[in-house]
Design brief:
globular; single chain; alpha/beta; about 45% helix; about 325 residues; TIM Barrel
Amino acid sequence: MKNKIARREFLKTVGAGALAGAGLGTGAPLARAASVGGIKNISDKKPRLLSSCCAYSYRELLSTGKMSYEDLILKAVELGLDAVDMTVYYFKSTNPGYLDSLRNLAYRNAVAFSGAACNATMVKTDAAARAEVLVQIKKWVDAADRLGASHLRIFAGDLPAGVTTQQAIDWSVETMKAGCDYSAEKGITLGIEDHGNITSSANACLEIMERVNSPYAGINLDITHFTATPAQDAYAQIAACMPYATVSHIRDHWDDSKPGDSKPVDMERVWRLYAEAGHKGYMAVEYSPEETGEPAITGAPKLIAKTIELCRKYSSV
């Protein structure tokens, strides 16, 4: 396998402090992550942590027409964000003129696109269905390219009845490898999000990365989606996946939080993991009003402000 790095080189990249802070020993995720190369050529240990916001944070407004993507770009300026992440569900169209206008508006306001996000799900029992998913991925790679975004989020998907986890991983590898072959031609990285089912485990995410084995493959790392086990808490799994992290999705409550039953994330601890690893990437807020009971129009800016504060504290820029 190409681009392997020795375990000691991984430890240099992540940093002993990061591993200790994560509570990560020499278990499977570390052993696996230590044996493979990351997706990026990291020039030094200086972290570059930039703020972004997923359009999905404002989904209620975008889906009802109360907010447009033009509004979102200007909202990013108002809130002091470095970038926005463009969830494709809310595009008016994929016509070149529309995407070009968004790209131009973002440029004129010095707002970057940290990426685009589609809902292509690769775990399909039928080969023809998997082929159709690849068609979808290529479509959204083309749209991201036109938009000027260098990253596209994809999913593994739900585990169908009667399907083993290994089968699901195999299908994900098959489709993602083909997708990366295509996206590489346009310089676009595909990031599989840890989003339940097979990707709720760092082990599965890392196996997919090993087998896809492409510099254009990565993990769209949602810090709240890993399922903790007695051997590996969520922080340990975040650290294990760090060498492959692309865009990171930021929420401040774990998945099973509800209004009145808050289970907060230790945000300082998470940022220390990123900083000690020398990570370079966008920290994209994905606000969930279901967890807080507060609508996005007032709740999202609070999480964005906290994210910007932490980026400034732990980033070298």
